[in-house]
């Protein structure tokens, strides 16, 4: 089994479904409200575990009821939570608005995630034994840099999702092996809207990039081979929340199993396509047999 460590966020997603998202100053009546376990870190951990990885999660939940539910949700998908800390105070939450096309907008309140500022005891050793370390930007950047640097010291592949998009500390891209932005994050990092040109620019800072393009699939670029695009299976999306996290979690498993990169990207795209056809983040992530059947 591919050993994967996720250093990242946990949120309780407070999900409102609407016909269309309100404009500033406008009130709309929604259709439905649910609480769904999420957070980019937890989502990637759950996606990777369901895709067949042996996954451990480093991060923090709060000491409230949401924290208990978040930990239980990870454990129920087979994620090891021994190094998922419980911090006194509230868990992270995300206000998620999903419109009739399945598109989302999200506001995150970090809560307990903000207490994770560096690696703690035993965490570098856990990372050292992994095939890949998955990172996002919903923990303090000091922790992300600490984790990526530890992985690099031990020759562990680092896969960074640069979301939410923000300026990165010097040195973080230098210890990133594979960067997986969506097209908006790639544009924010480079100032270049065209994904092909943005990928070229990013290759000056990291050796390999996958830009996810939603329903249009993904674009792979590497310093070692010509760029190529991989389509996404055509599906009707009901909720795209967590689709990128599903893609990245599945991709990490596929790379750990040494699937050729193009095959790995098709497999990850199949996982993400299954995710968008169901509501919620962690609730919508597929298990391995479904991904194998769909790819
Ligand atoms: O990527 C989707 C996730 O982003 C949601 O689950 C939400 O918690 C935010 O972190």
Describe the structure.
This protein is an alpha/beta fold and 295 residues long. Helix 5 packs across helix 6 (195-202). 51% of the residues are buried. The model has no long low-confidence stretch (mean pLDDT 96). A hairpin with a 5-residue loop joins strand 6 and strand 7 (104-109). The two termini are 20 Å apart. A nine-stranded mixed β-sheet has the order 5-4-1-8-9-10-11-12-13, with helices on both faces. A four-stranded mixed β-sheet has the order 3-2-6-7. It has helices at 40-50, 65-76, 123-128, 141-153, 183-190, 195-202, 243-256, 261-276, 288-294; strands at 3-7, 11-17, 32-38, 54-62, 84-87, 92-98, 104-109, 132-135, 157-160, 178-179, 208-212, 218-222, 225-230. It has one domain (3-9, 38-59, 114-294): UDP-N-acetylmuramoyl-L-alanine:D-glutamate ligase (3-Layer(aba) Sandwich). The longest helix has 16 residues, at 261-276. Helices cover 32% and strands 24% of the residues. It has nine helices and 13 strands. The structure holds alpha-D-ribofuranose. Residues 9, 11, 13, 38-40, 43, 94, 106, 108, 138, 241-242, 244-245, 281 line the site of alpha-D-ribofuranose (RIB). Alpha-D-ribofuranose binds at residues 9, 11, 13, 38-40, 43, 94, 106, 108, 138, 241-242, 244-245, 281.
Task: Describe this protein with a few key phrases.
295 residues; alpha/beta; UDP-N-acetylmuramoyl-L-alanine:D-glutamate ligase; nine-stranded mixed sheet; 9 helices; 13 strands; 24% strand; binds alpha-D-ribofuranose
Give the topology, please:
Layout: E1 3-7, E2 11-17, E3 32-38, H1 40-50, E4 54-62, H2 65-76, E5 84-87, E6 92-98, E7 104-109, H3 123-128, E8 132-135, H4 141-153, E9 157-160, E10 178-179, H5 183-190, H6 195-202, E11 208-212, E12 218-222, E13 225-230, H7 243-256, H8 261-276, H9 288-294
Parallel strand pairs: 1-4, 1-8, 2-6, 4-5, 8-9, 9-10, 10-11
Antiparallel strand pairs: 2-3, 6-7, 11-12, 12-13
The structure holds alpha-D-ribofuranose (RIB).
Residues 9, 11, 13, 38-40, 43, 94, 106, 108, 138, 241-242, 244-245, 281 line the site of alpha-D-ribofuranose.
